[in-house]
From TrEMBL, chain A:
Keywords: Calcium, Capsid protein, Manganese, Metal-binding, Virion. The keyword Metal-binding applies. Binds 1 Ca(2+) ion per subunit. Binds 2 manganese ions per subunit. One of its GO terms (molecular function) is metal ion binding. The lineage of its organism: Bacteria, Bacillati, Bacillota, Bacilli, Bacillales. This is Spore coat protein CotJC. Belongs to the manganese catalase family. It comes from Salinibacillus xinjiangensis. Its cofactor is Ca(2+); Mn(2+). The keyword Transferase does not apply.
UniProtKB/TrEMBL annotation, chain B:
It comes from Salinibacillus xinjiangensis. This is Spore coat associated protein CotJA. The lineage of its organism: Bacteria, Bacillati, Bacillota, Bacilli, Bacillales. Pfam families: CotJA (PF11007). InterPro entries: Spore_coat_CotJA. It comes from the Bacteria.
TrEMBL record, chain C:
Residues 11-86 form the Protein CotJB domain. It comes from Salinibacillus xinjiangensis. Keywords: Capsid protein, Virion. This is Spore coat protein CotJB. It holds the Pfam family CotJB. InterPro entries: CotJB_dom, Spore_coat_assembly_CotJB.
Length: 189, 73, 87
């Protein structure tokens, strides 16, 4: 089971009310390489991966939910007191017409999240390579959003999330090495 | 010298309509080079670690934003 | 009725976030390095520090966890604002 903890993983700040940035950022909420897809991908693959790497998939999958909450916080703060007029100017009129300010699992172009974004091949190497690719794609997405954003506080949080992708990718690469079983020949201490 | 950003010079046709970006870049973060992380690497202090997004300086990947050179003839 | 959280709230929260972040990093590291004794000692050290800080936090600002992982105040204060995204 899971325990919710009433705090964010990182102190998220946003400098200004800016629904346009929220529109871009929603890519990491309900997009193909977003945090929801990441969490569900790893927590689903873990049932059929060798025992040695179940812990890693569980822990990274769990951390992804903390990142999902950070993205939600950013979107919430960027749009909280925006007027319908501001939503319209930001290109969010179609979203507003359907959802008001509610968050929804879709990407920056409004395409709803789909399970086809994630894979579970059942082959441990194929699944871990998918996970490594997913982390690199998420890292790239953060880069493109940072390039679009002029909000220094938001970018601080986005750079943190980008760095987490780098660390996760590192761990998944190590998981591949563990499954290859060759590295036991090296002694570390 | 080791750098986390790599550059390349894309082919530019005289018939390309946008102002050419002469130099393009892409990121090569440290996880691509580390292999299996060795034990006892130097660490950040907790608060520093939080604001870097990693406990280990060796895994830190700064991203200052796209650095591309547009041709201004 | 609006309340504003004092600066000490943000300081303590940040301290907890920093210590818990080290624990996240060490957790993922130990998942692939289960025999690193030094890292496990460090993990246990920060786990203890995290517990102490959270005890202090919960005394002033209410429970961090639910389902009995935190003790309750009287009256029940789990629903009290601010929620993490409102902070």
């Amino acid at each position: 089971m899971w325990y919710y903890e009433k705090k964010l993983q990182y102190p998220v700040k946003v400098s200004s009310c800016n629904p346009r940035l929220a529109k871009y950022l929603i890519e990491q909420y309900g997009g193909a390489d977003g945090e929801l897809a990441a969490a569900l991908r790893y927590l689903n693959q873990r049932y059929t991966i060798p025992d040695k790497v179940i812990g890693l998939l569980t822990d990274i999958g769990t951390e992804e939910f903390a990142h999902l909450e950070m993205i939600a916080t950013m979107v919430y703060k960027l749009t909280k007191d925006a007027t319908p007029e501001m939503m319209k100017e930001a290109g969010l009129a179609p979203h507003y017409a359907n959802h008001d300010k509610a968050l929804f699992y879709h990407n920056a172009a409004g395409v709803p999240w789909t399970a086809t974004y994630i894979q579970a091949k059942g082959d441990p190497i194929a699944d871990l390579y998918e996970d490594i690719a997913a982390e690199e794609k998420a890292r790239a997405t953060y880069q493109w959003i940072i390039n679009l954003s002029d909000d220094p506080d938001l970018n601080d949080g986005l750079k943190y999330l980008r760095e987490r992708e780098v660390v996760h990718s590192q761990r998944f690469r190590e998981a591949v090495e563990i499954l290859k079983e060759e590295r036991d020949k090296q002694i570390y201490f | 010298m080791y750098t986390q950003t790599k550059y390349y010079y894309p082919y530019h046709s005289p018939f390309d309509p946008c102002k050419p970006i002469k130099v393009k870049s892409y990121e090569t973060p440290p996880n691509l080079y580390m292999g299996f992380q060795p034990p006892s690497l130097p660490q950040f202090q907790p608060r520093e670690a939080l604001y870097h997004g990693t406990l280990w300086p060796a895994l830190f990947s700064p991203y200052p934003g796209k650095r591309e050179v547009v041709d201004n003839e | 009725m609006n309340k504003t959280m004092p600066p000490e709230f943000y300081q303590l929260l940040e301290e907890i976030q920093a210590v818990d972040f080290v624990l996240v990093e060490l957790t993922l590291y130990l998942d692939t390095h289960p025999d690193d004794y030094e890292a496990i000692q460090q993990f246990n050290h920060y786990a203890k520090q995290s517990k102490t800080l959270k005890k202090q936090y919960e005394k002033s600002y209410g429970p961090l966890k639910q389902y009995g992982a935190s003790y309750s105040t009287y009256p029940w204060s789990w629903d009290d604002t601010p929620w993490p995204w409102q902070v």
